[in-house]
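User: My collaborator and I are trying to settle a disagreement about how two of our proteins should look. Neither of us wants to argue from intuition anymore, so we agreed to look at predicted structures for both before our next call. Could you fold the first one, then the second, and keep them clearly separated?

Assistant: That sounds like a sensible way to settle it. I'll keep them separate. The first protein:
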Amino acid sequence: MPIFEYVCNRCKKQFEELVFSQDEQAVCPSCGSTDTAKLMSCCRGKMGGGAADSDAPVAKASTSSSSGGCAGCSGGNCSSCH
């Protein structure tokens, strides 16, 4: 069961929702509206098990403002990423 990110078109609140089926309509927890839109989510994973895997190659995301990505943070989950 995936967790999707949504934005409410009425109150503009962003929220996450555990989805049980493709046809399920997300309801805004702030205002109760069903006028919601699914957002494109950034997927982050952790390679390896921690410090012992420091030899493992890790791809780093570009934080350059010219790339159009997340220039203001390194988290990949801020409002400028959307």
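The second protein, kept apart from the first:
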Amino acid sequence: MGCRGALACLRVFRVKARQASMKEMAAAAKTIAGMFDGRQAYDAAAFKAVAETIRARTGPALIAEFPSATLGAPSGARLEIEQARAEFEALANHMGTLAEALAAKARQAPVGITSDMRMGSGPAMGGGSLLGKRPAAEADPAKLPAEHLLHLILQNCSSCHSKFRQKVR
């Protein structure tokens, strides 16, 4: 495994498991995005499965993947996670809330993408796009379209990565 001592091996194992989990979430998000932008055929069962993958790996599960002993080089997780633990956990929990709403929508997904699944539908968007009017911060995620929830999850990922992820060489 290339580590020295039990603690070092455990750290390497935890980092590799976290990286695998992140890759699974990224692949799941890419699958959903592909369904919404037409690069991939929509499949309600696949939508449900990949939305569940994201839901299962966010919130408390995501927080648990970042114990202080696994932060810093050679991991891509910055030491700042520990210094700003409350902010990190708030981002992880917010993503969990969004992912739960997305998974709930996926569990009820129709056989085809409907207009109410799309961004721009419903009053929360004010008829605009994600780049235009944004929903109020207190908007109930359960009332947002599935496509919008995905974009908010991806936005949350970007926010977290910009603050807490470092490039590893």
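Some points you might bring to the call about the second protein. Residues 84 and 164 are 9 Å apart (CA to CA). The domain at 6-164 is CATH 1.20.120.10 (Four Helix Bundle (Hemerythrin (Met), subunit A)).
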